[in-house]
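chain below, 122 aa
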Amino acid sequence: QVQLVETGGGLVQTGASLTLSCAVSGHSVNGNAVAWFRQAPGKERAFVAGISYIGQTLYGDFVKGRFTINKDNAKNTVYLQLNNLNSEDTAVYYCALRGGVIYFDATLWEHWGQGTLVTVSS
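prediction:
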């Protein structure tokens, strides 16, 4: 019954910004952990950012301050602000939800969205 729908991806040029949205239904982000992962062709699914039910945030090492995760509990939506994008950021970005704490391991997340594609041209 839990659904996560990602939107906001697209084709942008190097240096551009995008805001991704994860709309959650069937569960509340105010009480659960939500994270963004990304997966490029031939690569493992990598942790990008996570936010706990109390608002604690964690980021993958490659983020280097360029991305920001936040949420709107009233809208039951989690956002990922992507800034200063480069070609290495090209990937399908997925939203995930779990009922406990944030983990970096993608296999420990139960609920996933369909993904939204971010393509950054060189």
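The CA atoms of residues 50 and 58 lie 5 Å apart. The chain has no helices and eleven strands.
thats it, cya
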